[in-house]
Amino acid sequence: MDKDKKGFFSKLKEGLSKTKKNLTDQIGNIVFKHKKINDEFLEELEEILITSDMGVETTMNIIDYIKDEAKKRKLEDTAEIKDVIKEYLVNMLQENDNEEDYKDKQRVILVVGVNGVGKTTSIGKIAYRLKQSGNSVIVAAADTFRAAAVEQLKDWCEKADVDIVASEQGSDPGAVVFDAIQSAKARKADVLICDTAGRLHNKKNLMNELSKIFKILDKEFSEAKIDVYLVIDATTGQNGIIQAKLFSETCGINGLILTKLDGTAKGGIAFPIVNVLKIPIKYVGVGEKIDDLQDFNPVDFVNAIFE
Ligand SMILES: Nc1nc2c(ncn2[C@@H]2O[C@H](COP(=O)(O)OP(=O)(O)O)[C@@H](O)[C@H]2O)c(=O)[nH]1
Ligand SMILES: [Mg+2]
């Protein structure tokens, strides 16, 4: 590993240390207790997985995989199980990654999610990363619901040194996106990132507003590769799955950003989210600073929890 990569990994590992403690310490205990793989061991493992945010479906998939592989490979020792679980999880995460080629296209990233999950912060971080790696970036402040939201985004854009298209509070978010598209086209920006409002007190309103933004993107910027990333706050656990289901019914979500992994014991939520929704995680948030966002790497993520 080079130095940067090592730094990234230790940050991720540190962030996920509570999740690791929750999950792998318990697994370690039953491995020690049982020594041999038997029904009792598998039942206890099942309980650990379910109670550590893996969810029922994903837990069942893991247990089935363990049973199959144990038979196939004639495994007997419980000490061998951790590697089998890791293997299942890495494969599952990799299978659900769907990166398409968009190298020659302008790109739009529409960021959606409920209030407070970390949309605006993640946009600041993504803008910074893309800018640092040589892309020209424009950000659209299409959360026009609160004046503070626009100010917050302006601060991030200043830090990231990217341009922002904004309007006054209460203005039509669709109009902001429209203006931002014109500006992205005129300046041949590589990436346009759109912030959106996330109030869910009226789901219909929110979804209508998002649909309008989609229509404008389709109509005005059909030549661009459009990604819709849903931001999920890892600390909300299973609730994140419910949110993701809601959003994917309306918007074609094709990527997830999992935030606040630093310090939560609920990092295991990443697995059922991907396994149940079949949507890949693109980025993970590991803190509040501008460089606290990492590309999601299945192997690193699984190692950070199970190593
Ligand atoms: N610890 C931590 N805090 C985060 C992370 N991402 C966002 N936050 C915090 O979450 C809060 C809400 O973020 P914000 O971007 O305003 O959420 P939005 O309402 O979805 O736009 C802020 O206090 C952020 O600093 C993260 O990865 N780790
Ligand atoms: Mg916001």
If you had to describe this structure to a student in words, what would you say it looks like?
- The chain is of the alpha/beta class.
- The chain has a domain at 107-253: Rossmann fold (3-Layer(aba) Sandwich), CATH 3.40.50.
- Helices cover 55% and strands 14% of the residues.
- The chain has helices at 3-15, 17-34, 39-54, 56-72, 81-95, 119-132, 147-160, 173-186, 203-220, 239-250, 270-277, 298-306; strands at 107-112, 137-142, 163-165, 191-196, 225-233, 255-259, 281-285, 293-295.
- It has an eight-stranded mixed β-sheet with strand order 3-2-4-1-5-6-7-8, with helices on both faces.
- Helix 10 (239-250) links the parallel strand 5 and strand 6.
- The mean pLDDT is 92.
- The structure holds guanosine-5'-diphosphate (GDP) and magnesium ion.
- Guanosine-5'-diphosphate (GDP) is lined by residues 113, 115-121, 198, 231, 259-260, 262, 285-288, 292.
- The site of magnesium ion has 5 residues, from helix 6.
Can you give me a brief rundown of this structure?
The chain is α/β, with parallel strands linked by helices and 307 residues long. It is 55% helix and 14% strand. The chain has an 8-stranded mixed sheet with strand order 3-2-4-1-5-6-7-8, with helices on both faces.
